[in-house]
Structures are given as C-alpha cells and as structure tokens.
Design brief:
Blueprint lengths: L2 H4 L9 H29 L25 H15 L3 H25 L9 H21 L4 E2 L8 E2 L2 H21 L5 H20 L2 H21 L8 H18 L6 H4 L1 H20 L9 H7 L4 H26 L4
Antiparallel strand pairs: 1-2
Helix pairs in contact: 2-3, 2-8, 3-4, 3-8, 3-9, 4-5, 4-8, 4-9, 5-6, 5-9, 6-9, 6-11, 7-8, 7-9, 7-13
Pathway: Cell wall biogenesis; peptidoglycan biosynthesis
Subcellular location: Cell membrane; Membrane
Membrane topology: Multi-pass membrane protein
Amino acid sequence: MEAGRTGRHRPVAHHPVKHAALVGLLAFVAGVAGYPWLTTQLARRGAGQRVQSYSPQSHMIKMGTPTMGGLLFCAITLAACLVFDRTRIGFVVVFALCAGALVGVLDDRDNVRGRGVFGLGAYQKIGFQAFVGLLVGIGLDIVGATRQLFPGLGAPDLHGAGIILVSILAVIAVSNAVNLTDGVDGLAAGCSLVVFAGLLAVALHQHALPVVIVSAALVGALAAFLVFNWFPARIFMGDTGSLALGCALVAAAAELHLLWFLPLMGIVFVAETLSVIINVTVIRRFHRRLLRASPLHHHFEELGLRERRLVACFVAAAAAGTLLTVLYARSRGAVA
C-alpha cells in the first residue's frame, strides 16, 4: 500500500532529511537550554525520586534526584508538531504522547507526595492506560488507517474494533515495558532514542510528515535529556516520560505499518518485561530465583556490571533490533 495513493500522508518538504534535521536540532537546543531550569524547579518542589526496595543498594544515592523530566521532552515534541505540522494523523501520535504523559504525571505525583513508592495502584494505572489505548485506537481508525499484520506478506488489514483492541493491548504492554526499563541512568531514554530514530528513517522513506516531525522532535529532545540523564543522572524521566514514550511508540509504529515489529525494535523492553514475569513466576512456584534481581538490568548490576557499560550494551541491542526491523520492512514493502 503506497502512502501517496491512499492520501494518508502528505508529502514531506522538498528536502525531508533537512526538514527532520532542523526539527531535531531545534528540539535538542530547546532541551539543553530547558533541562537545567526544569531540574532546579523540580528540586525546589520536592519532586524527587523514591527508590524501590528491590533496587540494588548502589541506587540509594539516587534517592531525591528530580524526576518527571519527561515533561520537557513531551512539551518540546508537542510544540514542534504545533509549529511544523497540524494534520489529523500527527495529532493521533502527539495525543498518545501527551495522554501517556498525563497518566505518568498522576503516578509520579502520588510517588513524590509519599503515597507509596509505586504511585498509582496497579489496577488504576492499567485502567488509565486502557482508556488511553482506546482513544488512540479510535483515533487511528478515524484517520482512515488500516494496519497490515505482516506488511508485504498479503495478510489481512486491521481496522475498526480490531485496531482498537490491539491498540489497547499494545499501549498497556509497551508503556509498562518502557517503564520497567527506566531503572538505570540513560537506559530507557537511550533505547527509546534508537527506536524513534528507526521510525524516523522509515517515516522519511514513506514521506510521512506527521511521523517525521514527532520522531525527529523526540530524537532531538531525548538526546538533550540524555545529556542530563546519563550516569550520574541529574534528572529522571519518571513515569511521566516512560509512559508517554510507550504510548507514542505504539501510535507512531501503527502509522508506519510497524506495530507488529515493535517486539523486535523494542527487544530490550521485551527482555526487561519477560525477566520480571519469569523471575516472579519461578519464585512463586519453585521458591527460588532464576535471576539475582529483576528487571534484567538489576540482574546484571548484581553481577557487577557497571551502569555505563550495561547501558551501552542494552542500547546496542536496541540498535540491532531496530536496524533489522528497518531492513526487513524495506525488503518486504512495509516501507512504501
């Protein structure tokens, strides 16, 4: 299905790469300029990180580090889309980002106010995420988009109730997976940056301006965030950032016919989630640990792997999965 024939995407500027580079550069500059101010404001308001009991002892020094840093990279992305693109398709992706951020703000708010380390209750969080997924799915269906199960293989499309149901499940799964990954300085941001860079490459090839704008803005803003989130972190994204990124990943990937490739692009997110599920299951059934700790990054920390090297290895894995996805998509016609 070619984007140009369906009308789903309008052509990008005459120089799409330059257009994306401009958006990314402006987002990066805005982030580098804004994060020192945001860090100071969050610290003054006592919006500090609380450390979970299962975290390694080395993480105790992170207690009190300003959190909710996702506010700025979400705001920068929203501003970029308002300035450079106002299509309905772009609105769906930006809505997913902002709606996820709102759920994260509610969670972080309860966290920093001392209402438990975990903020919202599990059922509350899943309920909010399901509602966001419902709205995102409706939005994707309204803009007239169909979702091929396996692009280029002649599989049936998803639309109507199908895309809405898949959207709900995907938003819950992906946003929680990114959230679990956000446990080491620079890990969730680094992996997300790589995945959005891959989506940007596909969007450029498809001439999908809305996704180009969102992806370029997030790549630039996340790069700026990493300047302050790299070990030792001066600010954390919080659930505000991780849930927003997860929701945006679902919407952007769906727009590019890559929704079903997210497990490969987000291979680190999948590994982190499976490590928790498997470890908890083994402990409950056999009263022993398969891993020293979970999510997976805590296991490697317990084995003595330093944070910087751990993050470098995980981001490299994310880059490999993303590259394979882009290459497969091009070879199978997912990239128009």
